[in-house]
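Forum: Protein Structure Q&A
Topic: Joint prediction for protein chains with partners

I've read a bunch of threads here and the consensus seems to be that you should model interacting components together rather than docking separate models afterwards. I'd like to see that in practice. Below is the full input, 626 residues plus whatever partners are listed. Could one of the regulars post the assembled result?
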Amino acid sequence: MVTQEEIEQAHDRIRPYIHRTPVLTNQTLNSLTGAEIYFKCENFQKVGAFKARGGVNAVLQIVQNKEAESLTTHSSGNHAQALAYAARKVGLHAYIIMPRTAPQVKKDAVRGYGAQVIECEPTLEAREEGVQKIIRNKGAILVHPFDNDRIIAGQATAAKELFEDIDITLEALITPVGGGGLLSGTSLSARYFSPTTQVFAGEPEGAADAIYSVKSGTVQKPEFIRTIADGLLTTLSERTLAIIRKHVAEIFLVSDEEIKQAMKLIWERMKIVVEPSSAVVLAVVIRHKELFTGKRVGIILSGGNVDLSKLPF
Amino acid sequence: MVTQEEIEQAHDRIRPYIHRTPVLTNQTLNSLTGAEIYFKCENFQKVGAFKARGGVNAVLQIVQNKEAESLTTHSSGNHAQALAYAARKVGLHAYIIMPRTAPQVKKDAVRGYGAQVIECEPTLEAREEGVQKIIRNKGAILVHPFDNDRIIAGQATAAKELFEDIDITLEALITPVGGGGLLSGTSLSARYFSPTTQVFAGEPEGAADAIYSVKSGTVQKPEFIRTIADGLLTTLSERTLAIIRKHVAEIFLVSDEEIKQAMKLIWERMKIVVEPSSAVVLAVVIRHKELFTGKRVGIILSGGNVDLSKLPF
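Posted by a regular:
Agreed with the consensus. Here's the joint model:
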């Protein structure tokens, strides 16, 4: 399991390449929820999402240890941009397998960072096959979006900064959960740097796998996938499941309608652009108001990459 | 003309009621324009726009001098919210005359601050008639959106903060221009606090009156009004025209297409919500790249109040 020292080292390593994102508060949203909410704005992060943290941490170590001269991954979006960004910074070549259905704005962004996009069918099988091909043919190293300790240590630094940058102790800290990289990193940061903070997660009803995986103790697939939160479609891995079972207090489901409402509130009231996956967490606080009212609650806004031509409003 | 001391006093007076908004920079937009841009983010201001500054400054003085127990104005949006907000803070009653075509989100916001909204036809005549009626019947005092020294002194504090909060000296500072409250306040702040900074303005082609007013020396009406930048429809007053003629280097026109493109860039790249009127200024820097490239340029993002159900993307 990722240690406190590994998170601290990751933070020192990535610092020159990432933003120390601001923590925002908002009176209207506090009044609405009864909670005192601290928003860690990873939508302002490099590449528009927290994924830059893990990506940079992994790629810097690949270069330092001379593990390969190119890298590859499959990603529906933000992880792809993160690796492309990190690879360019250190002069590695990046091959990114992306489902052809991924938002155009995300494909363009990956290409904009100089990476090579290889499109595939939008199934997990096709994505993994694409990655294996690149590994065989190009000698590239796989950087998995979340089933990777370096990635988890990198993602953990968002919560570490949040703890450092506010004067009070959070009673709760909530992140979205897809593959579990951000959630497991956050829960480890809480354990090491703010042990009285309880960590929770939000998951879309239309991609409900983590909640059942935690209950059953084995990685589950969702019964069905239909959600606006396109960053949260993946299932956990054994690695993230183990951390989440140990350190996360509870996972809450929210509907797409609740996600859209929360997203609209954030855009209208905070005047910031967040993607649906980010809004999942505020949706949790609104739906379970009774649990969070009167509490100091941290929220990690995971990213801000949206296709403006396809808004749900 | 508003003095340096009046701007300094305004700043001290309003400080407890407004946000000291952040100054953001963005590498992508710097690369795109060749300029080094400092965005003063008044979209994060109370009520979502710089208008809170002038509104609070005016209302606090009305209360201190016991000039009236209620106030009124006509406004298509942000000034209305600003006065409603300020009136509530000090316990005055506010009657706001709004064109019935104003965005619903803005009417709702004004009512949300406890003010009484009185709808009228969307003509300047109907708006002014509505205001006169309230003054006669209710004894309310008029707080004009820009033809008012207290308002101008308040709006001037945005530029004052920008000068204080960055380490370098700006070579150019650009605001949008509608009635000219922000522009004249900004140009006076530059004169007093950063005299080597040249002040410019951006105006929509579809509400082009300030540019001709400055050229002719008298307040002109636009030839036609058709623009997405709904905060910039008003003409100058003699008061703002005089200041602008003296202290503003040049006014540039931009098309609605350019405004939309600039707005999309700000949303996508900076991950912040700005209204079309704010985007006018970046559109100027992009259209006149040759003038601003290599320069340190301040931009005042005037506000972030948009109707998310009516986006131009």
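The mean pLDDT of chain A is 96.
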